[in-house]
């Protein structure tokens, strides 16, 4: 059945029905998710639709499933070139050429990458004529989850506000100038955030953390510059010079064409949002205890820590006069029995 769908997809591709081809390849992949050819061929359809980020992701998957599949490297190289990621494209194309040295397409595309890379290096030498720091707001790929970002001199921090998402349902990939975030919860429509980034990053230094109320992604900048936005604009953007002043505070810098935003105020707003956020279950209970502890004086904190530790988490007291004078025994809830674990 999967092969039949793939055959129909090829017919649709030949007829220039690229949307139909993508849909049919997707159905074939659902039936046979370990077929590298399906991913490589869907990548080609994505390229025709100018969905280059999706094409890169499919090509990477095809290479992962079959490292000897030359068209996987060709698709990745082509899509990365469309995204102007010429160094990443060149690496993929050179790998493909080493597998199929007689394939002339690889040499032609590698030569084009070398030309583009040399042009980029020349542009870096020329001083910028104009600096435009007008912020361009990033729009979510899907309205299902809201995302925001702020930046420091050396990194950009992207936050996706997704509650209760398990780590196994989150897939995040980093490219030279690509961020790919996929949240795929069984039974729900998948969420995709796959922007081409304003500036280049160092993928091996990027990291992320899945929390109870959000996903925090830290992008390591390849250059210490201020990004005018999260996503790359349609028009060529002139990057500002690196921030090298030792007199300027090294607090996180937000993009602005007129004045630097008040970081303390923004941080306070984020904390207020987290404080006002309505949680349920264990998350709400933990938040309640954290608030008590943060507002307590030194004696209350000592009482809370001592009672909680000595009672193995069954008692939490704020009265230091009572707690400080004796050892707090474990008091399990009604209907439960306290047991000691032997190691």
Topology:
Elements: H1 2-14, H2 18-31, H3 36-48, H4 52-65, H5 70-82, H6 86-99, H7 104-125, E1 146-151, E2 155-161, E3 170-174, E4 179-183, E5 191-193, E6 207-210, E7 215-220, H8 263-276, H9 281-294, H10 298-310, H11 320-323
Antiparallel strand pairs: 1-2, 2-7, 3-4, 4-5, 6-7
Short description:
By secondary structure, the protein is α+β, with helices and mostly antiparallel strands.
Folded structure, characterized:
- The chain has 343 residues and is an alpha+beta fold.
- The protein has 11 helices and 7 strands.
- Strands 1-2-7-6 form a 4-stranded antiparallel β-sheet, with no helix packed on it. Strands 3-4-5 form a 3-stranded antiparallel β-sheet, with no helix packed on it.
- A hairpin with a 3-residue loop joins strand 1 (146-151) and strand 2 (155-161).
- Helix 5 (70-82) packs parallel to helix 7 (104-125) and helix 6 (86-99) packs antiparallel against helix 7 (104-125).
- The chain starts with a helix and ends in a 20-residue tail after the last helix.
- The model is unreliable at 234-238 and 241-250 (pLDDT under 50).
